[in-house]
Design a protein that fits this description.
By secondary structure, this protein is α/β, with parallel strands linked by helices. It has one domain (about 10-195, about 225-265): 3-Layer(aba) Sandwich (Stationary-phase Survival Protein Sure Homolog, Chain: A). About 25% of the residues lie in helices and about 30% in strands. The protein has eight helices and 13 strands. It has helices spanning about 25-30, 85-95, 115-120, 120-130, 150-165, 230-235, 255, 260-265, and strands at about 10-15, 35-45, 60-65, 70, 70-75, 75-80, 100-110, 135-140, 170-180, 185-190, 195-205, 210-220, 240-245. The strands form three sheets. It has a nine-stranded mixed sheet, with helices on both faces. Bound molecules: manganese (II) ion (MN). The site of manganese (II) ion has 6 residues, from strand 7.
């Protein structure tokens, strides 16, 4: 059932991994002003690339934060934890009832291909999906001087669509917007994650006590020439929307793993399905 079918304003939770004071989440809130009842629960500090980490050995605190959109103040909390912590805390403690939709972003920098696994932005949306709440992750493909307005307009269009139609169970949408002006964006494309990886190295340095330390560095390499990938869509000027899920079972592998050699080695168990 879509959130708007209840007849009341949909409750929309905003989160991110760049921190509650980052410009991207303010642009997102401004773009969504009037679409529903907005709430913001996001890490107090930047948590980019923390993936789906949660805090289990330390307390998590939430502090009320002033947060304004053009129509007025939005209830907002900064959380001393990760993006996934923020969504858990919002859904279980801070928002009653829980939100109808979670929107994570707008991230500064793309979250395409394998980067989905490292992304705190995507993980906030994934956590919502695990909790049974429809969710979107939105990223702008610009690291340096991001202009969030156009990504905000696309966010609003996609959010309005998601509120009206709902998402398939267990599926969230990972949205990447190319860093282009409005008239250069060609449209929107449903994509799959490209096969790509980082060719990594470490920059080894020495601290004042003469001990080595390391900075991770690397080059992102696209190994996929498919036209239907997230990387190809963005390169060609389309907003990329990849439906993703947290069930990481490799269903296609069952046939390969249950051929003769598997049965020879492990056969004879009475596991029933
Ligand atoms: Mn980030």
């Amino acid at each position: 059932m879509s959130a708007s079918s209840s007849g009341t304003a949909p409750r929309i939770l905003l989160c991110n991994d760049d921190g509650i004071h980052a410009p991207g989440i303010h642009s997102l809130a401004t773009a969504l002003d009037g679409v529903g009842e907005l709430f913001v629960v996001a890490p107090t500090t930047e948590q980019s690339a923390v993936g789906h980490a949660i805090t289990v050995r330390d307390p998590v605190r939430a502090h009320s934060v002033a947060f304004e959109v053009p129509s007025g103040p939005v209830p907002a909390w900064g959380v001393t934890g990760t993006p996934a912590d923020s969504v858990k805390l919002a859904c279980h403690e801070l928002l009653d009832p829980p939100p109808d939709l979670v929107v994570s972003g707008i991230n500064q920098g793309p979250n395409t291909a394998v980067n989905v696994l490292y992304s705190g932005t995507v993980s906030a949306a994934t956590e919502a999906s695990i909790l049974g709440v429809d969710a979107l992750a939105i990223s702008l493909c610009d690291w340096s001087e991001p202009q969030f307005e156009e990504a905000g307009r696309w966010s609003r269009r996609i959010v309005e669509w998601a509120l009206e139609h709902g998402l398939p169970r267990g599926v969230l949408l990972n949205v990447n917007v190319p860093a282009l002006p409005e008239d250069e964006i060609k449209g929107i494309a449903l994509t799959r994650q490209a096969r790509a990886r980082w060719e990594e190295g470490f920059d080894r340095r020495t601290d004042p006590a003469d001990r080595p330390y390391y900075w991770l560095s690397g080059t992102f390499v696209n190994l996929d020439d498919g036209q239907e990938t997230d990387l190809s869509a963005i390169e060609r000027g389309y907003v990329s929307v990849t439906p993703i899920q947290h069930d990481m079972t490799a269903y296609d592998a069952f046939d390969a793993l249950t051929d003769g050699s598997w049965d020879e080695s492990f056969g004879g168990t009475d596991f029933e399905t």
